């Protein structure tokens, strides 16, 4: 006897989810990064993120319980707003 609904895999961790989820209504929902994932993406240490958060000059984040969570789109936007240094490579 078959199930009247489609069976879905059980997600054991947020890391198993794709970066962006699209709901049936077409809304896009991002999977938030934890501090380690954000630090890896930016190429900095987790300690640097903590230091930046204390000075309020790092990427925006939300606290869920006791955990900092970063939305990838907000981290990318913050990175784009950072001043560039040095000269652009010659074309």
Overall description:
- The protein is an alpha+beta fold and 91 residues long.
- It has a domain at 32-81.
- The chain is built from three helices and four strands, in the order ββααββα.
- The strands form two sheets. It has a two-stranded antiparallel ribbon.
- Mean pLDDT is 80; it is low at 1-11.
Binned, the helix content reads 25-40%
In which order are the strands of the major sheet placed?
1-2
What's the total number of strands? 4
Q: Tell the overall outline.
A: globular
Return the structural class.
alpha+beta
Strand-residue proportion: 5-15%
Largest sheet: 2 strands, antiparallel
Our count of helices gives 3
Q: Span from first to last CA? A: 66 Å
Radius of gyration: 18 Å
Average per-residue pLDDT, rounded, comes to 80
Order of H and E elements: EEHHEEH
**Can you tell me the residue ranges where pLDDT is under 50 for at least 5 consecutive residues?**
1-11
List keywords for this structure.
globular, 31% helix, 91 residues, alpha+beta, two-stranded antiparallel ribbon, 3 helices, 13% strand, 4 strands, disordered N terminus, two-stranded antiparallel sheet
Helices and strands in order, then pairings?
Blueprint: E1 20-22, E2 28-30, H1 35-42, H2 46-55, E3 62-64, E4 67-69, H3 72-81
Antiparallel strand pairs: 1-2, 3-4
């Amino acid at each position: 006897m078959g199930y009247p609904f489609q069976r879905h895999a059980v997600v054991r961790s947020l890391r198993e989810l794709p970066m962006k989820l699209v709901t049936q209504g077409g809304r896009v929902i991002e999977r938030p990064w934890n501090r380690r994932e954000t630090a890896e993406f930016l190429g900095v240490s987790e300690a640097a993120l903590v230091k930046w958060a204390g000075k309020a000059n790092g990427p925006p984040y939300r606290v869920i319980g006791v955990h900092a969570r970063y939305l990838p789109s907000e981290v990318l936007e913050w990175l784009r707003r950072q001043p560039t240094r040095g000269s652009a490579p010659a074309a």
